[in-house]
C-alpha cells in the first residue's frame, strides 16, 4: 500500500510529459506550416504591390498572410501550454521539428529543393528528438506560485540570471554598436540569454494558470504578476534583437545558430531552476545530451544545404551594402590569401540601373566556375587580396549611390 502513491505520481508525471510532447509536436507542425503559408501570402502580395522586403505593407491586405499568422499564433499557444505539462528539457528541443515541417512543405509547395543532405538533417532531428523524449526527466509541478518564486530566488538561479543579464548588457551596450552588423553571435547571444529567462517566466505563468484552473487561485500572489512583467519585458527585448539578426544575416545561418544557443541556455536555466536532472541517472543525462547534440547537428545540416534566400536588389545606403560585402564577399572569393583577377580597365559599361542588382547577385549567388564577376567591373586590372576587394566594392558603390550619372560620363571620356 505504501508503494501506491509513488506509482500513481509516476503515472501522472508520464501523462503530463505525454501531453507536453503532443502539444510540442503540434506546435511545431503549426509553426512550420505558418512559415510556408505566410511566404505564399507575401509572394502573392508582392506580385500585386510593393514587397515587404522593400518596405511595403501590402501583405496586410492579403488573406493568405493572415491565415499564416493565425496558424503561427495557434502553434505558439500550443507551445505555451506544453511548458505547463512538461519540462523545458523535453519541450524546447522538439522545436526543431518545425524546421523539418517547413523544409518538407517548402520542397513540395514552394518548390524549394530539399537536397539529400537536407533529408539527412531531418532524420538526425527526428532521431535526436526521439532520444530526448525517451529519456525526458520527471518534473514535479510546484503546488503554488510561491514555490516557483522560491526556486527562482535560490542562489544558483540568481547567479545564472545575473550572468545572463550582465552578458546581455555588455552585448547590447558595447558589442552591438561596434560589431553587431558583422558578428552574428552578438544579436543571437542577446536573444538566447534573454530567451532562456523568457521561457522560465512563461513556464512559471503557465503553472500558475494551471493551478488556478484546478481551483487554487494564484492571481492574488504578487509573484504571479512579477513573472508576467518579466516575461513581457524579455519577449520585447528578444524579438527586437531577433528581428535585427534576421534583417542583417542570412536566415539559413541565423536559424541553426539561434536554435543551438537558445536550446542550450534554456535547458541549462531549467536544469538550475527546476532541477530537471535531479534524481536522474548519469546514463539518462548523457543520453539527453547526445540527443540534443544530434538535434543541433541535424538542424545545422538541414540549413547548410538550403538554397540562399534571394536578396533585395535595392540597398538604402552604402553602409547597408558594406554589411553585405563584409559578410558574403569572403565566402565568395575565399580566404584572405586567395587572389582575384579583375580584368580590363574601364568602367564605361557600368550604369546605376544595372550595377546594384548585379552586385547583390554576384556576392550572394555567383559560382566561381561562372566567372561572371569580371564582366561589369572593368575598371581594375589588378591582383588583389580580400581586403583590396572590400575597398573596391565600397568605393564602387559610393560612386554608384552618391555620384550623378554625369560622373560616369566624365569617367568614360
Automatic annotation (TrEMBL):
What does the UniProt keyword field contain? Cell membrane, Endosome, Ion transport, Magnesium, Membrane, Transmembrane, Transmembrane helix, Transport
| Compartments (UniProt record) | Cell membrane; Early endosome; Membrane
Q: Which InterPro entries match?
A: EmrE-like (IPR037185), Mg_trans_NIPA (IPR008521)
Query: Keyword Manganese on this protein?
Result: no
Membrane-traversing stretches? 20-37, 64-85, 91-110, 117-136, 156-173, 185-209, 221-241, 253-274
One annotated GO molecular function: magnesium ion transmembrane transporter activity
Question: According to the lineage, what is the superkingdom?
Answer: Eukaryota
Q: Give the membrane topology, semicolon-separated if more than one.
A: Multi-pass membrane protein
- What SUPFAM superfamilies does UniProt report for this protein, alphabetically? Multidrug resistance efflux transporter EmrE
Annotated GO CC locations: early endosome; plasma membrane
Q: One Pfam family, short name please?
A: Mg_trans_NIPA
What does the UniProt function comment say about this protein?
Acts as a Mg(2+) transporter. Can also transport other divalent cations such as Fe(2+), Sr(2+), Ba(2+), Mn(2+) and Co(2+) but to a much less extent than Mg(2+).
Say which family it is in.
Belongs to the NIPA (TC 2.A.7) family.
Keyword Endoplasmic reticulum attributed = no
The protein here is known as Probable magnesium transporter
Record's subunit section: Homodimer.
